[in-house]
Amino acid sequence: MKERTEILEETFRKLAEEKKYASLRDLMQTLYPADIAAILSDMPEKLMPAIFRLLPKDLAAETFVEMESDVKETLIRSFSDTELKAVIDEMYMDDAVDLIEEMPANMVRRILTQADADTRKQINEILKYKDDSAGSVMTTEFVALTPEMTAEEAINHIRRTGVDKETINTCYVLDEKYHLLGTVTIRTLILANPQDTCESLMTANAISVGTQDDQETAVQMMSKYDFTSLPVVDAENRMVGIITVDDALDIMEEEASEDIAKMAAITPSDKPYLKTSVFEIWKNRIPWLLLLMISGTFTGIVISRFESALALVPVLTAYIPMMMDTGGNSGSQASVTIIRGLSINDLELKDVFHVMWKEFRVSILCGAALSLANFAKLMVFDRRFINPDITVPVAATICMAMFFTVVIAKLVGCTLPMLAKKAHLDPAVMASPFITTIVDVLSLLVLFTLATSILKIYA
Amino acid sequence: MKERTEILEETFRKLAEEKKYASLRDLMQTLYPADIAAILSDMPEKLMPAIFRLLPKDLAAETFVEMESDVKETLIRSFSDTELKAVIDEMYMDDAVDLIEEMPANMVRRILTQADADTRKQINEILKYKDDSAGSVMTTEFVALTPEMTAEEAINHIRRTGVDKETINTCYVLDEKYHLLGTVTIRTLILANPQDTCESLMTANAISVGTQDDQETAVQMMSKYDFTSLPVVDAENRMVGIITVDDALDIMEEEASEDIAKMAAITPSDKPYLKTSVFEIWKNRIPWLLLLMISGTFTGIVISRFESALALVPVLTAYIPMMMDTGGNSGSQASVTIIRGLSINDLELKDVFHVMWKEFRVSILCGAALSLANFAKLMVFDRRFINPDITVPVAATICMAMFFTVVIAKLVGCTLPMLAKKAHLDPAVMASPFITTIVDVLSLLVLFTLATSILKIYA
After folding, report:
1. Which residue of B has its CA nearest to A259?
2. pLDDT of residue A364 exceeding 90
3. For A84-128, how does the pLDDT look when each residue is reduced to its tens digit (9 = 90+)?
4. How far is B336 from chain A (nearest CA, A)?
5. How do residues B240-254 score in pLDDT, each as one tens digit?
6. How, if at all, do strands A180-185 and A170-174 pair?
7. ipTM for the whole predicted complex goes beyond 0.85
8. Which of A296, A314, A336 has the CB atom closest to B321's CB atom?
9. What is the separation of C-alpha B207 from the centre of its chain, rounded to a whole number of angstroms?
10. Cβ contacts (< 8 Å) between A30 and chain B: which residues?
11. Is B361 on the interface with A (CB under 8 A)?
12. Cα B451 to chain center, whole Å?
């Protein structure tokens, strides 16, 4: 893939420099919009708008949509009002809305001025839906049929009006009040007897989402029912748009990236890494680091409290980091599993006791294996090569603390994300870093409690 | 959604118990396969196969595909050979292959015996492709057209043969040796002049993947080009199948779940959590915990080495956990960002220096903010309430160590995943737990080096 793009880029540049615009135009018409966008984005800023202008209207709009927002901005600045209008009129509604959302305010005014009244009205309509709702990602262009139409009439209707619709693979049968009666695929229409009515051909009981529902819910539904487009209805149950499967793929990727960022204690950003400024990256990371650093005060308090006890068995200090890391890793294994399960609907809140019981048994197995392995390592390897002070009671203390730490960590790790969900918070925030901070304190308390009772040392 | 399923389940049970099979059958025909599968899976094992038998052939196959593998197994055990054959013959090729892959060996033999010779041949063909390759997830059923066909002929051809094809939205124009010449959508065919030839209507330069390519590559391509199906070609460039967008959604979800599991040091499993046994969960988690625990030996060695120095300034011990956690969190922020960027193709190997330079600047900002905040906290809060031994040199040592730890953590965190990719290993394995283990050792070394030179204490 890589090389092909580079060769094309070279060819583009050469043709542009030699002013062979007709050949360049012909070449571009054989390429996919995503490829043209990638090549143009890497071109020098002076050449790029000139080459873009060579594209025929529809291909220009499709290519424009595939570009990163900084390239879009450069292009819009170079557009005349007529050019801007041409591109916007050719764009699908959901893409136009995306454009408005990512441009700075002065650009937005210019874009809205150029859009025709009807487009402007629809854009404003969609902009009213809150971020990440189904309404905000839908397109208002879909094929609507009436129940009385025959398959033949329906196909003719699509032929007459379908060119502008984003997808015609699934058509929607609506009553006169725009209520969704059912769906019929183009496949069914083509394979049907031409005289059959849409009502007899359609699948009734159509599945839909509300405009206010979460976009993630919409994608989960499309995945569950294998739809290539999902109808969106308003509060009065009137159909207002569809979400298409290509957007569903993007949304799924975006939501997974967001979850992963949150799990690593980062405020999610929808910009690609290389396009994000150092300051923005810092802003997304530092609040969490500060918060977690300050929660670290509690581990400090515990250790200070037991400082004199620790001075009597200094060898314990050497095992604090290992103990805490093992606790943190055990806890985040559980929390991340549960968070992912909740987010792909494999788990529900009602499973909480089922989950805790399962994690409890897993933690006993993990804790036992780790303690035994650790005991062997301490007595055979560490005592000989690292620290001759390791006695059987010391090793036993460390291993028992390890066992309880793992059990506590797994239970905390599986419970907190479910509590967060119950409290309508995002479970993803309850991932490794928070679990680690809590488990750290608990594991130190366990270690010192066991040390004072087994090794008879007192603070 | 929840309540609706429960009401339906209640109705199913009642109708089955009252032996009102005709009404039950009518009711099921108004539902989606995914819903029927969910309801049947929750039914008592005795009732379930009887209700399943009421489904008409095609709906039965579609419902069967949507079930979890343990329910499928129960059903197959209850099927007569004729029933099994009917379900398999109705299934799409990719679903049949999935079934074979998830069933135990004795079931597989029974299934392959019941499949007709042609189906068996195609299943075996697909099974040869390695796991997670494009070949292993494709279906062999697609609409092939010749370049000379007119739009009208093409539509008639689809009408005659299309019923069995998994998707007819995109058709493929092949030459007599099965080489892919181009694609034409059903939309284009319907909207075209009926006398236009496929050759003139098709988009040439078709994008395809090879059977041996990674399924993730295929999904990234579908997302990039907004395809609803992607052609798969063999080593001789002959078209052998397609990947459909509903499978792409599943693959994307599965790949994100796998990455998330690996980042949390878990061996990924494709079974839902509640269906995975305690022992299997343990097996997926314990090797990593053991490995990480044993790598923890190095932190122990560093602390043991500096034990006597630490005894002179015992207050430092209380800050070791906070230092290590902050280092771990800083490092995993960087590593997780880079891992995700690599996996969604936002980043490439050639960006390595760009990334390091960016992370270096971010780490300076993060390190500075954290050290300053920590210095203020140490002098104002901790000295007064927790530990009166904190002097300015001690606080300065801790904060300088914090600064360097953050810088080192971010650099290690961004570099290791890229090195892993370069070495053809999975970057996701280089996430938080490994970074934390490495950063722990480095941060302790930094702390003790600074402590010995600033506080003049020696091991």
Report:
1. B260
2. yes
3. 888 888 888 888 888 887 787 777 778 877 777 777 777 877 777
4. 7
5. 889 988 889 989 988
6. antiparallel
7. no
8. A296
9. 23
10. 204-205
11. yes
12. 45
